[in-house]
Amino acid sequence: MKKVDDGYIVKEGYPFCIIPTIAGFILLAVHWFVAGAVLLAFGLFCLYFFRNPDRRVPQEPRAVIAPADGKVIQVDPAYHEERFMGTLTQKVSIFMNLFDVHVNRFPASCTVRSIKYNTGRFFSANLDKASRENEHNALLLETPCGEKILMIQIAGVIARRIACWADEGDTVEAGQRLGLIRFGSRVELFLSPRCRLVVRPGDRVRAGETVVGYLP
């Protein structure tokens, strides 16, 4: 697995934080106050956006943990057309707004069996068609008990960069950081129909902490 970023902010955020902040100070120094203040505000917002907090991972062997912070917008039976699962599943969709932590985490202790990145469009991530048509990165995960979980990072209308720090064949722990999506996005889980889900649309969840269901 690529080096996991566990600093105060993730490395992908450095340019967004440093460049506007330096430029803002320079503009303030030459008395371009409005432009300087805007750039400084953007730099400070990026420090907040790219924050990378620690989380207390539930120590429940069969728990499936939220892979992203945000709002559950869909919990439905679903058939995923990709080659990964090929059967009826339960889909849990989590929408991340601009103010949510955007670091994604593994939903269970597992082995990464496959990673498939797909280019696509950039519809708003809270729309149903975003799940099918937007740029996304799909990870097929297999737990030690043989259960498969499909996790998909989906880009949105502003989010156009998906970072994934995992490699195929990695063995990882539940709640371990795996990547992020920049500036508003969506993460989906496809789980076995035998999983017992404990979240509903409208629930707020935290990556690495909130249990969304239990494996059979």
Task: Please describe the structure with a list of short key phrases separated by commas or semicolons.
single chain, 216 residues, alpha+beta, three-stranded antiparallel beta sheet, 3 helices, elongated
Instruction: Give the neighbour order of strands across the main sheet.
Output: 9-5-6-7-11-3-2-13
Rg result: 18 Å
Run of helices and strands: HHEEEEEHEEEEEEEEE
Proportion in β-strands: 25-35%
Which ranges are low-confidence, i.e. pLDDT below 50, for 5 or more consecutive residues?
Answer: none
Main sheet: strands, sense, barrel: 8 strands, antiparallel
Distance between the termini: 28 Å
Q: Shape, please?
A: elongated
Based on secondary structure, the structural category is alpha+beta
Overall strand count: 14
Percent of residues in helical segments?
Answer: 10-25%
Number of helices: 3
Mean of the pLDDT scores?
87
Summary?
Helices cover 18% and strands 34% of the residues. The protein has 216 residues and is α+β, with helices and mostly antiparallel strands. Helix 1 packs antiparallel against helix 2.
